[in-house]
């Protein structure tokens, strides 16, 4: 798979900032964002896409017929997008088929691809991970979140995982030590941390910000995302 550049963002638990991380990484990497998260809180809706206003489902059609979709143009504040659809929940192709589709699309586009996935290890997630150069795993400091991460590391040890400490505030010493041990035992690299920002849940992703204090924090957040993107570029 050396002729394609696919990064999948996956996590075995929801609520860890997976979608925002995928959205921002796609923007920083100038990648096509392929949204495989069929829930309403996914990247497609945050991007501004509304499946209920469309006659056709680009993603579902292309998964079925194999023809590469034409990504929606994102502009200067959001990445190009292949939007998801709620029916993907009950019409996921098998992992091998989805892996083949993503590979073909990436070659056709000639661009990096970032895939957002539904929380957990469904067929679509495994298909995307199978063709990925990097699988970025947003990692939140917390007992339940680290329990889920531990299960993921045990279940999929052979994938090219990279842990991305996400929504980081002030984790306690115990959680820091546990993450360090999990990463060391699994021999998985850890990317630079991405800070917790209170404004993220209350705004459309990458909508212009006018408040000076918030804008300052947005700059800091973007700088950290750029560091994560650089770590992904250098992953080997």
Quick synopsis:
With 236 residues, the chain is α/β, with parallel strands linked by helices. The chain is 41% helix and 12% strand.
- Adjacency order of strands in the biggest sheet: 3-2-4-1-5-6
Q: Which sheet architecture does the biggest sheet show?
A: 6 strands, parallel
Which series of helices and strands comes N to C?
EHEHHEHEHEHEHH
Mean pLDDT: 88
Shape: globular
In CATH, the architecture is: 3-Layer(aba) Sandwich
Distance between the termini: 13 Å
CATH topology: Rossmann fold
Strand content: 5-15%
CATH superfamily: P-loop containing nucleotide triphosphate hydrolases
- Number of H/I helices: 8
Query: How many domains comprise the coordinates?
Result: 1
What Rg, in angstroms, do the CA atoms define?
17 Å
Uncertain regions spanning at least 5 consecutive residues: 203-214
Q: Percent of residues in helical segments?
A: 40-55%
Given this structure, which CATH class is correct?
Alpha Beta
DSSP summary, beta strand count: 6
Could you say which structural class the secondary elements and strand pairing correspond to?
A: alpha/beta
């Amino acid at each position: 798979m050396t002729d394609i550049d696919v990064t999948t963002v996956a996590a075995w638990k929801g609520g860890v900032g997976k979608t925002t991380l995928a959205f921002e990484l796609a923007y920083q990497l100038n990648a096509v964002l392929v949204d495989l998260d069929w829930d309403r809180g996914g990247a497609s809706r945050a991007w501004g896409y509304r499946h209920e206003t469309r006659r056709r489902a680009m993603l579902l059609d292309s998964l079925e017929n194999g023809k590469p979709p034409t990504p929606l143009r994102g502009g200067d504040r959001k990445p190009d997008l292949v939007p998801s659809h709620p029916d993907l929940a009950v019409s996921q192709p098998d992992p091998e088929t989805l892996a083949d589709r993503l590979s073909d699309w990436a070659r056709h586009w000639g661009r990096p691809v970032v895939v957002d996935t539904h929380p957990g290890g469904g067929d679509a997630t495994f298909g995307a991970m199978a063709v990925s150069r990097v699988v970025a795993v947003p990692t939140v400091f917390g007992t339940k979140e680290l329990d889920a991460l531990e299960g993921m590391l045990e279940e999929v040890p052979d994938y090219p995982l990279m842990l991305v400490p996400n929504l980081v505030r002030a984790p306690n010493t115990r959680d820091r030590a546990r993450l360090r041990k999990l990463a060391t035992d699994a021999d998985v690299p850890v990317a630079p941390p991405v800070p917790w920002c209170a404004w993220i849940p209350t705004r459309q992703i990458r909508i212009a910000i006018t408040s000076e204090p918030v804008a300052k924090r947005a700059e800091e957040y973007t700088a950290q995302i750029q560091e994560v993107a650089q770590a992904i570029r250098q992953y080997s």
